[in-house]
Amino acid sequence: MKLYRFTINLEDIGKRLDRYLAENLPDYSRNYIQNLIKEGRVTINEKPAKANYRIKQGDLIAVEIPPARELELIPENIDIDIIYQDKDIAIINKPQGMVVHPAAGNYSGTLVNALLYHCDSLSGINGKIRPGIVHRLDKDTSGLLVIAKNDFAHNYLSHQLQERKITRIYHAIAEGVIGDDEGTIRAPIGRSLRDRKKMAVVTGGRSSITHYRVLERFAQHTYLELTLETGRTHQIRVHLKYLGHPLVGDPVYGRRKQVFNLRGQALHAYSLILTHPTTGERMSFIAPLPEYFENLLKTLRQREKNN
Length: 307
Known about the structure:
Distance between the termini: 59 Å
Radius of gyration: 21 Å
CATH topology of the largest domain: Pseudouridine synthase
Number of strands: 15
CATH class of the largest domain: Alpha Beta
Low-confidence stretches: none
Largest sheet: 9 strands, mixed
Helix content: 10-25%
CATH superfamily of the largest domain: Pseudouridine synthase
Order of helices and strands: EHHEEEEEHEHEEEEEEHEEH
Strand content: 25-35%
Number of domains: 3
Shape: globular
Number of helices: 6
């Protein structure tokens, strides 16, 4: 069991308790912290606290983190869109809102739980919690993922990623109007110096390259196609924020005020091109835009007609 203690500084006065703890305990999600509060594992001045408590100067906050429980992966009959499958790989069209693999706060209902049910085998290179997972998509990013069904395929695909021989193309809708028809964002990405839970463009970060092309412009938004040359955590989301055009609906890097009632960022992994581990065949896959994305485009196009 771990015990953390915090004494409030002037700049933190007035913050919600759960937000403050999420900022100061970056290894734990806000949802996990809220559960700790509900379980009575967070106290303020030795008294049980509530998540919406506004902290005051001099408050002494204590957080008790229980021992990590052993994750037991259970196959679950969750409907997933498997657009291709053979003895080596599977190509999945992940829906928005699905977590890729189990972690604190998400022990079931993940893509891995579904894969264990639907696939006869998965690679074990990434360990018990992430069988078959070669690369990931954020929970609220929809679209294509390649899954390795054996260790040989996993190593082969991982090498392709490292050598930048897998092409990953995304469609996205960004805030504001991007003037250039196409361009490249070259900006290093690392942990944010202000918020360790976020990524940011930082000096000394890892080399990160995103190519973009404008597909359609609206009065206040831009529909984009983006190609990853590198694959850093939250790369597209961070790069577009850096460009001054964050993704519509992005709860972390976007505008605070959301006007389209989206469940997350308007980002879809649209196309995946790779070389098959066994046959050597160059294979191309496309996942059509999901309903939430199509509806947003319809809304923006209708606004253009009405103006």
